[in-house]
Amino acid sequence: MTRILLTGGAGYIGSHTFVALREAGFDVTILDDFSNAEPSVIDRLARLTGGPVDVVRGSVMDRDALDALFAAKPYDGVVHFAARKAVGESTERPLDYFETNIGGLTTLMQAMRAADVWRIVFSSTATVYGEPEVFPLTEDLPLSHTSPYAFTKLTCERILEQAARADPWCVGVLRYFNPVGAHSSAMIGEDPRGVPDNLMPFIAKVALGELAELQVFGDDYDTPDGTAWRDYIHVMDLADAHVRSLQALMDGRAHVLNIGTGRPISVLDMHAAYSAAAGRDLPYRIAPRRPGDVPKLYADPSRARQVLGFQAKRDLDEMCRSSWEWVQARAQGWRFNS
Ligand code: WQD
Known about the structure:
Layout: E1 3-7, H1 12-23, E2 27-32, H2 40-49, E3 54-57, H3 63-72, E4 77-80, H4 87-92, H5 94-114, E5 119-125, H6 148-163, E6 170-176, E7 178-180, H7 199-208, E8 214-217, E9 229-230, E10 232-234, H8 235-250, E11 255-259, E12 265-266, H9 267-278, E13 284-287, H10 302-308, H11 316-331
Parallel strand pairs: 1-2, 1-4, 2-3, 4-5, 5-6, 6-11, 7-10, 8-13
Antiparallel strand pairs: 9-12
The site of UDP-4-deoxy-4-formamido-beta-L-arabinopyranose has 18 residues, from helix 7 and strand 8.
């Protein structure tokens, strides 16, 4: 059985990838410091996958803990999710982002190298394209950063590229567009702390009545309805992309890929779809643009289809419906049928 370590595996994308990897027959261990994940997710993952979850509480910045992990079990590869991910926060605390995101990667890689483990899937982001002017986005576009968060992801991509020139690293870089939605069981999903920055979790709290109204950040963009375009992708499609990425690395096929649908969705499109899922017209008002936002981000997903055979399957309605079912279940405390 192929053994995989998921750093940050208790988080939003990590937990959904855990389920997809187990369903694909992988043996999976989670390493997480639970700084941005609820411990109860482990019990819910155990229920979802029908068996105990191998989890180690710890940080990718703890070299001794990593050495002990790699000494305990011969891993075939690592999926590295563990990182700080809030764009706005990164502008306030850049050093924390450099330490965790860049220092965490190099510490992990040092421990992997010492243990002769060379396959790594890296969680990157479409914001490495900076403020693009050519669409849809292809992987060969010039890279730049508009925030310390994006700087860390871009720097990590370059570290992985440079390291592979000296040692036999086999790397899968996945540039996520906008992950949204939840597993169809409504037992796992996006679980941000405090007031969400991101669009879908914010709309979800409006739908629950926990927040009064959605602020639409700008309606003067060069799009049909004036609101910004993003490429939202269902988190279970994203999880499927990770399974396929690992399978490619097991065959020795390194890659750098956009993981998106290729379909741009506006803020008002998302508002309408979520209102339909929630069964009522959710309140919103037009607000000024958010500093740092780019007008458009959407992928050309063709290389992932060619290299991994990956294509996103779930549509906007399923993204919203699964999110709505998750946030209701979470608000009710997951009254599981016994
Ligand atoms: C989407 C659109 C907002 C909230 C960021 C990171 C990216 C990834 C996902 C980490 C934008 C608009 C939002 C609201 C709004 N993070 N919006 N009202 O900014 O595309 O991506 O989060 O991996 O790396 O860059 O996502 O969901 O914040 O915004 O109108 O209350 O929704 O202006 O156009 P974003 P988002």
